[in-house]
Amino acid sequence: MYDNSRTTTIASLFCLLLTSLSLLALPQGQAGATPSDKIAQMTRAANAGDSNAMVQLGWCYQNGIGVARDQAQAASWFRKGADAGSADAMNRLGLMIVFDQVPGVDKDEALTWFTKSGGLGNARGMALRGYFYMYCNQFVGTKHPQCPLYGPAMGNSQQAASKGDALGALNVALLYDLGLVPWIGRDAASARPYYTQAAKSDEPEIAEAAKHGLKQLDEERSKSDLMTAAVLGVIGLIALNSSSSPSHKETGPDPLDTLMEQQRRERQRQHDECMTRIWGAKDPMAVWASCP
Known about the structure:
Elements: H1 4-20, H2 35-47, H3 51-63, H4 71-83, H5 87-98, H6 108-119, H7 123-134, H8 136-140, H9 150-162, H10 166-178, H11 188-199, H12 204-217, H13 223-243, H14 258-279, H15 284-289
Helix pairs in contact: 1-13, 2-3, 3-4, 4-5, 5-6, 6-7, 7-9, 7-10, 9-10, 10-11, 10-12, 10-13, 11-12, 12-13
């Protein structure tokens, strides 16, 4: 049997931390062109129908890289990319909607985009759909009185994990570890392989959260320890998904170079310092409030 108040607290703390977190794993570019040249190049490619360029341009507007930060423009370009069939754009637009960065849009639309992304075979879209079901009370309130939907959360997250997605694996581990699926209950043995999978992720926060979960499985824990593990896990998995740079391995222009690298290093430094303090804190919320 799960503790609903505990789950609500986890989701509330997570949302506070996520909306503040802006670490960017900035993409590497080529030397030579100026930031404005590359933004112009991306814009031309996006206007010509390149969905990869649409995602990159939306990401630049979302984070103020080479252009003034503009959430409306970011959402517009992500929406264009999503309409053009980009699963990455669908995930990014869905996350903006979930966290109130697209005014006037019903949050159910986020679930629609995650579902479409997952339907294209995108594992992260499947995992985000599972995440939405885990915390839908936080997102849509009493609109869906049956929320949270831990059964569908488990199913979608397991499917994502089977495709190698670390977010999905961590979702499943937390569902087992917290005993959130009523007809399953807490199952530490089943949580372990999913924590292990997530711990191998090249996304550092996800890996760190999973390692923390594994350690907790082997130690006597209190409810506050368990909650902290869940909170920090959710921070890592969504923060990276929402703010990491889009891939530019496909056709389309490379994103910005020197300016972006300088900003990446400074934000990485600030992020690493803050996360070190959060991981060791008894009150993560209070620590986060003091972070830049």
